[in-house]
Amino acid sequence: MFRLPAFSQLWVSMLALLALSVSARADISIHDLELRAGIDGRPGIIFARLTNNGARPDSLVGVDSPHARIELHTHEMRDNIMRMRRVDAFSLAPDTDFVLKSGGHHLMVFDLAHDEHKSPLRLTFRFEHAPAVRAEVSHGDSHKTGRHKHH
Ligand SMILES: [Cu+2]
User: Fold this and answer.
1) Whole-prediction pTM value?
2) Per CATH, is 27-146 categorized as 2.60.40.1890?
3) In angstroms, what is the span from residue 108 Cα to ligand 1's centroid?
4) Pairing mode, if any, of strands 90-92 and 96-100?
């Protein structure tokens, strides 16, 4: 009987750990992931919607994949021409959706060494504050990539 307090203490700390990991996991969620593979060795592109459920601003500082090198890109108007530019981070305002879409912010996929159209691409989203989020994205329709120009 004297071992019971120790056991229940362990149980309480386990519950606390569980609660911690659940709330941490909910900080930033990623939806609507879409991968458009590039044609003839051109870079692919990833779209998604990131929701910062936390109470403070955060930033996406990188996306890692064992299959490819991934850059954060944005579009900006310069000399009356829309160009893509690499950025170090995307700011994620609290309680707000950040949308990666065609013609806007997006993820550029380089050197895709991957068995195309078979297994999904594994991704790890890294943030300034929130714990990293792992996700997978399957190959979508590559015919649409023609509209996306890369400079
Ligand atoms: Cu780009």
Assistant:
1) 0.74
2) yes
3) 5
4) unpaired
pLDDT mean by block of 10 residues, the chain; 151 residues: 55 54 67 88 93 94 95 92 94 94 94 71 95 89 45 43
Annotated domain spans of the chain: 27-146
Q: How far apart are CA 28 and CA 99, in angstroms?
A: 13
Report how far residue 105's alpha carbon sits from residue 74's, in angstroms, rounded to the nearest whole number: 4
Q: Which residues surround ligand 1, an ion (CB under 5 A)?
A: 73, 84, 108
**Nearest to 135, CA basis, from 26, 22, 23, 30:** 30
Q: What is the Cα–Cα distance from 8 to 117, expressed in whole angstroms?
A: 50
Q: Using alpha carbons, select from 45, 28, 22, 24 the residue that is nearest to residue 97.
A: 28
- Provide the token pair at 115: 């068995």
CA distance 37 to 79: 29
Cα of 10 vs centre of ligand 1, distance in Å, is 50
Q: How far apart are CA 70 and CA 101, in angstroms?
A: 16
